[in-house]
Amino acid sequence: MTSKLRDLLDPKAEELVRVAGERAHNLFMTGQLMCSEAVLTVVNRALGGDLSDDMAIRLTACLPQGMGDSGCLCGAVSGGALALGLFLGRNRPGARDKRKAMESAGSLHDGFKEEFKSTCCRVLSKKVKHDTSLHMKQCAHFTRTATEMAIGTILRKRPELVEKADWDYLRKRDSRIGSKIRMLASMAIN
């Protein structure tokens, strides 16, 4: 988490940001979710959003690898922007608070770019694209960072959401083997 975020959050919110980032990282590293899916799913669950996990995953399914494997905007940033809209966006046509979500998404973009020198998936992955392990670790780090940035931004504007945190979900850690077994079992059922 950036020091800029740390300075603006109380200790409980800071812990929530850290644990949510770790959960998103874990979901990505175990192969359960792609970058954008992990970011939106974790932020939604962490802050008591009203999306089912299934809906969060479907909404973000086309965003990984720079929007549908095009290499453009990093999926973690896209997922973070959707999470910001979920909690900070206006909730009906003509509502007056449209700037809050837009400004927050711009700050997420700019903060990510400042941290990693780009928001373009193609640029971010250029040096590691031929090393699957390094590529996976790098994208997991981007996923963690975008999750932390999105949650930190939301909590600065809506600190009451700390009380809705699903700590059991956030503290859960899955193994890669365990997640593969669950995915295979799920496929056998369907």
SSE map:
Elements: H1 3-6, H2 11-29, H3 35-46, H4 53-60, H5 64-67, H6 75-88, H7 98-116, H8 121-125, H9 132-157, H10 167-171, H11 176-189
Helix pairs in contact: 2-3, 2-9, 3-4, 3-6, 3-9, 6-7, 6-9, 7-9
Task: Sum this structure up briefly.
The protein has eleven helices and no strands. It has 190 residues and is an all-alpha fold. The N and C termini lie far apart (39 Å).
Characterise this structure.
Helix content is 68%, strand content 0%. With 190 residues, it is mainly alpha-helical. Helix 3 (35-46) runs antiparallel to helix 4. The chain starts with a helix and ends with a helix.
Which key terms come to mind for this protein?
190 residues, mainly alpha
Mean pLDDT: 92
Euclidean distance between termini CA atoms:
39 Å
Q: Stretches where pLDDT falls below 50 for ≥5 residues?
A: none
Number of strands: 0
| SSE pattern | HHHHHHHHHHH
Strand content: under 5%
Shape: globular
Q: Output the structural class.
A: mainly alpha
- Main β sheet profile: none
CA radius of gyration is 16 Å
Give the proportion of residues in helices.
55-70%
Number of helices: 11
